[in-house]
Design brief:
Rossmann fold; 8 strands; 45% helix; globular; binds adenosine-5'-triphosphate; binds magnesium ion
Amino acid sequence: MTKVITFASPKGGVGKSSLCINTAAYFFASNYSVVVIDTDPQMSSYDWIAESDDPLLKHITAFHISSEQEIAHFIGETDSDIVCLDMEGNLYNSMGFCLAIADLVVVPCRPSRDDLVGLAWVKKLSEAAFADHPDSNARVVALMNGIDQNSDVFSHVKRQITQDGMEVFNNFLSQSTEIAESNINRVSALNILGKSSKEIVGIGQEMGLYLEGQDN
Ligand SMILES: Nc1ncnc2c1ncn2[C@@H]1O[C@H](COP(=O)(O)OP(=O)(O)OP(=O)(O)O)[C@@H](O)[C@H]1O
Ligand SMILES: [Mg+2]
C-alpha cells in the first residue's frame, strides 16, 4: 500500500526539499518504488530531480501538482510504494489537506526560535486538519536539521519539543557542505558517500519504522 510522507513547515529554508529528495533517494536505494510530488510553486524538488543525473534520482519521477483534487487523485491511482510530498514554506490553504493525507508528516526544524514557532504551527494546523479528516492516520514528527554535533543543542531542543507535546526523530541531519553541494550539483547526498549519507540512511530507517508502525 502506498505510504505518503509529507515534508512540512510554514518556515522557509528549514530543509523540507533537501530531506524530501534525499529520503526519496534512500527509499529508492532500499528497493521501494518512489515518486515525488512537489506542491511548491518554487518547484525546488521538481527541478532537482528533473535536472539530475544521479543514478538514484534518475529512477524517481517528480510531479508538480498543487491542487488538492489532483493530489488526492494521484495518490489514489499510483502504485508507488512511497510518495514524498514537498510543501511550500508558507501558511497556505492546502496545508491542512497535505498534512491529513500523509501517513507521516516530517517537520524539519533548525535549532532556532523561529523554526520552533514553525513547528508549533504545524502541530496546530495538523490538529485542525485531523479533526476535519477523522480518517487521517498521520504521525507528525519533528526532524532536527542543521545541527552542530559539537554542541549539545540537539538534546536541548529535542527536550523542549518533547515537552511541547511533539515527537522528535532520534536521528538528525548535521549542518554540512555535503547537503548544500548535493543541492547545487543536483545529486543525492547518498551519492557523496560522506557523513551526511550515513545520517540520511539513519533518518530513512527511522522513517521506515514509523511507517511500519502505521500498519500495526
Ligand atoms: N543540513 C544542511 N547543511 C547544509 N545546508 C543545508 C542543510 N539543510 C538544508 N541546507 C541548505 O539550506 C537551503 C534551504 O534548504 P531547503 O531548500 O531544503 O529548505 P526548504 O525548507 O525546502 O525551503 P523552502 O521553504 O524555501 O522551500 C538550501 O540551500 C540547502 O542546500
Ligand atoms: Mg523547499
